[in-house]
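Hey,
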Amino acid sequence: MDASRIDQWLESRYAQLADERYREFNARIVATVDPERMLGVRTPDLRRMAREVARMSGIEVWLDELPHMRFESMQVHAFVVGALKDYDECVCRINRFLPHVDNWATCDQLSPKVLAKRPKQTTALALGWMESPHTYTCRFGIETLMRNNLRHHFDAELLNAVALVDRGDDYYVNMMRAWFVAEALVWQPAKALDLLKNNSLDCWTHNKAIQKAIESRRVSDGLKDNLRALRRKG
C-alpha cells in the first residue's frame, strides 16, 4: 500500500467514525485549527488506526508527506511516531514533524516512550526544542522535560531553564510552563516552591502554576496553603 492509499484508507475510516457534535467540541477547544480540517473522530479510534497504519507498506513515505490536510491524520501521525521503538529513528521523525504541528492537541499527543531510554540525550534535545521560536516545538521541549526529568533524572537547573523561557504572551507555551511547575510541585516540591518564592516566573504563569497545583489531588493540603499565600496580583 503506497502513501496515497494510506490516505484513502484513513478517509474511509474517518467517514465511518466521524461525529459532528464531537467535531464541534474539538473545534472549540483546538482553536488554532481550521474546523474544515476536522471530522470529529475520537482519540481511541485514532489510536487504533495508528496501530494499523504503522504496519502498512508505504508508511515511511506517508510519514514524509507533511503536513497532512486532516487534523485527524496529524493525530494519527503523532501516535505512529510516538510508538516507534528505535531512538534515532524516532528523534528524526519528531524533528521532521514538529515544524508542521499547529495546535496543542497534536503536540501533546506526541509522547514517545523510547525517549526515556537515553535520558541525557533526551534532556539535551528537549532544551534545544525549547529554544525554538515555533510555539509547539518549544511546548514539546518543555513537555518532554516534564515527562522525563521531574520524577527521575531531576536537576534544579531545569526548573530555571523553563522559568527563563520568554515567549511573551504565547498562551500555549506559558500554559505548558505552568503545567511543568505544577508537576514539579508534586515531584520536587521544595525546589519548585523556591522557584515560586523567588518570583522567577511572569505573573500569569506563576499564578496559573499555583492554580493547577491547588486543583491537583497529588499536592498536600499544607503545600496548597503555602501556595495560596504566594499568589501575585497583576
